[in-house]
Automatic annotation (TrEMBL):
GO biological process, one term: protein N-linked glycosylation
Major place of residence: endoplasmic reticulum
Family: Belongs to the glycosyltransferase 2 family.
Entry keyword set: Endoplasmic reticulum, Glycosyltransferase, Membrane, Signal-anchor, Transferase, Transmembrane, Transmembrane helix
Domain Glycosyltransferase 2-like: 21-186
SUPFAM superfamilies: Nucleotide-diphospho-sugar transferases
Membrane topology: Single-pass membrane protein; Multi-pass membrane protein
GO MF annotation: an example: dolichyl-phosphate beta-glucosyltransferase activity
Protein's recorded name: dolichyl-phosphate beta-glucosyltransferase
GO cellular component, one term: membrane
Length: 397
């Protein structure tokens, strides 16, 4: 990746500022001024040009007036007013229109110690990483908060890891940074405009093979937090379900993001392989169960070899079609017939393995046949994945 040194332009545009620190606010007239002045003071110690952007989310108190006064008083402060609430909406708008090379956001309460800002942005400015996040869940982080929020935070991140197979440790810490060129590629794919925005952004970036840098932070909980925990939890669960569905069905064009940003193929490849293995496993489990049921049905009508042939044939056609669309993301009718023919060749190999298993079980009962054939079919499933990935759908990897 091209390094973004101090005051260098972001790829695809002209950057006049290196850092743009965005602070989304809603009715924060009490804390806004002190927080902005603290951030300005800290930015003055960094070796890059920087500014503070106050993103006012339709505040109804005196926040907007105070923000305008701060922007009028300080050249390195600007304010953007949005007519609707939503942290994700505010960050999308400001990040998409900023001329800075590296885009940062932090919560207005400054729960995160600002000393983490330099290690947060340095890997992005150097070009080493694409995104950076503060983490409250690293072993070397120092966090002060009550047990209720600790349990909720850890529980949520465990849920994200389990449901979406992520590697980053803390999705919701309000202390993140992203390269402008990366933001311009990934933001259009992020649907959420509220609290799930952070999680969705990180999941999409990770699935695209982008590098996420983590910084352990010193963090003190804000006792005056106005987050509606119940509503946020409900929205997050809906977001996880929606995002998981979109990833499984291949609706998100993440491969193009990887290619345009120029990350090494190996970095994205491991992520794609992991996704393909997981999706193939889901299809394989469904196919194996369907095969066992079909074999039992056909076995009532015919001999074991014919029942095995029919069950394998039906599941092979369905398996190839499912893997074509879900696992390898191939859409449309082009090459569909060729893929099915090649899939049937792989099926023939599987038929040979399972038929050989049957010949070795001559005289065994139905239950023994099903158990042995299911085990053989699992072996064939592994062989099938290798064949599909390296031969049938090789050009779509």
């Amino acid at each position: 990746m091209t390094a973004l040194w101090a005051d260098a332009p972001a790829e695809g545009g002209t950057a006049t500022t290196t850092l743009d620190v965005v602070i989304p606010v809603y009715n924060e007239e009490v804390t806004l001024e002190a927080s902005v002045l603290r951030v300005r003071e800290h930015l003055a110690t960094l070796p890059w040009s920087a500014r503070v952007t106050i993103a006012d989310n339709a505040s109804t108190d005196g926040t907007a007036v105070l923000a305008r006064r701060l922007a009028h008083t300080h050249d390195d402060v600007r304010v953007v007013h949005l007519p609707e609430k939503g942290r994700g909406r505010a960050l999308k708008h400001v990040w998409s229109t900023s001329d800075a090379a590296v885009l940062v956001y932090m919560d207005v309460d400054l729960s995160t110690d600002l000393n983490a800002l330099l290690p947060l942005v340095a890997p992005l400015i150097s070009g080493h990483s694409d995104l950076a996040i503060g983490s409250r869940l690293r072993h070397d982080s120092r966090v002060v908060r009550g047990p209720k929020r600790e349990v909720i935070s850890r529980g949520y991140n465990l849920l994200v890891k389990g449901a979406l197979r992520t590697r980053f440790s803390d999705a919701q810490c309000g202390f993140k940074a992203i390269r402008a060129d990366v933001a311009h590629e990934v933001l259009p794919l992020v649907e959420d405009d509220a609290w799930f925005f952070d999680t969705e952004l990180l999941v999409l970036a990770e699935r695209a093979g982008l590098r996420i840098h983590e910084v352990p932070v010193d963090w003190v909980d804000d006792p005056d937090s106005r987050v509606d925990i119940a509503r946020t939890a409900y929205d997050d669960l809906r977001g996880i379900a929606r995002l998981g569905r979109n990833l499984v069905t291949g609706r998100l064009p993440l491969g193009g993001v990887t290619e345009r940003l120029g990350r090494a193929q190996a970095e994205a490849g491991s992520g794609r392989l992991g996704s393909q293995v997981a999706l193939f496993a889901l299809v394989g489990v469904a196919s194996t169960l369907a095969y066992a049921l079909l074999f039992l049905v056909f076995r009532q009508l015919t001999g074991p070899l014919t029942a095995n042939l029919l069950a394998l044939l039906v599941t092979a056609v369905a398996n190839t079609a499912a893997n074509r669309r879900l696992t390898f993301g191939v859409r449309g009718r082009q090459d569909a017939l060729r893929h099915q023919v090649q899939g049937l060749v792989v099926f023939a190999v599987g038929l040979g393995v399972t038929s050989a298993t049957l010949w070795g079980l001559e005289g065994a009962g139905h239950v023994t046949e099903v158990v042995a054939l299911t085990a053989a079919n699992l072996l064939v499933t592994v062989m099938r994945f290798v064949a599909l990935r390296t031969w049938v759908f090789a050009r779509h990897r």
